[in-house]
Amino acid sequence: MKSLISLVLVLFCLNASAELIHHKMRPGRLHSSGELTIEIKEQRQNDFDAEIKYTIKPKPLVPVPSEYRSGTFVATLPIEFLSELGYQALSDSGPTINQGATLEHLGLEDIGRYTDSHHVKLVPESSKWELEAWYHPEIRSTGWSQLALEMQVPIFGRYKVYSDLID
C-alpha cells in the first residue's frame, strides 16, 4: 500500500517539481542581499533531492570569505514531502531520521498570504548547515515559501540567512 501511495505521489508531482523556484534573501547582519534557487534534481521511488544554490552579497567592509558568498547543497527528503501529506505525517509522528538527517515539524505558521504553512527543520548528520523551510501546498516544486539557512562562517561563527519566495 505504501508503495502505491509513493507511486501516486511521484506521478502527481513529476510535472510541478521540475520547476525552479526563486527566493530573495533578506538583508542580515553580514550581508545586504542575496538570491537562492531551489530545484528538484532527482526523484526516486522513496525520496528526492532538492538542490539549493545561493549567492550572498556581503555588506561593505565585511570580510566574508569568497567560498561562503555562494554555494550549493543538496537536501534529500522522503518522496512524501512533495505533498502536504508528508508534512502532516511528520507533525503527527514527531521527529524522524532520513538518511542520517533529522527532520522535525515545528508547527504551522502564516507566511504572507500562505496560511497554515508547515514549518520544518532539517539537520544533516554532518551539522555543517541547518535548513528550516516553510511548506505550503499552493507553491510549485518543493512548496517552500520561505527558507532559513544556517551555516558556520569563519570568524563570525554560526550565521543564519532568510529568504522569501519571489512570486
In short:
The chain has two helices and ten strands; from the N terminus they run H-E-E-E-E-H-E-E-E-E-E-E.
Written overview of the protein:
- This protein has about 170 residues and is an alpha+beta fold.
- It has one domain.
- It is built from two helices and ten strands.
- The protein has a ten-stranded antiparallel sheet.
- Strand 2 (about 30-45) and strand 3 (about 45-60) form a beta hairpin.
- The chain is globular and about 45 Å long.
Search tags:
167 residues; alpha+beta; disordered N terminus; single chain
Taking pLDDT < 50 over at least 5 consecutive residues as the criterion, the unreliable ranges are: 1-17
Strand content: over 45%
Most strands sheet: 10 strands, antiparallel
User: How much helical structure, as a percent, in the residues?
Assistant: 10-25%
> How confident is the prediction overall: mean pLDDT?
86
SSE layout and pairing:
Elements: H1 2-17, E1 21-25, E2 31-43, E3 47-58, E4 70-78, H2 84-93, E5 96-98, E6 101-111, E7 114-123, E8 129-135, E9 144-153, E10 157-165
Antiparallel strand pairs: 1-2, 1-10, 2-3, 3-4, 5-6, 6-7, 7-8, 8-9, 9-10
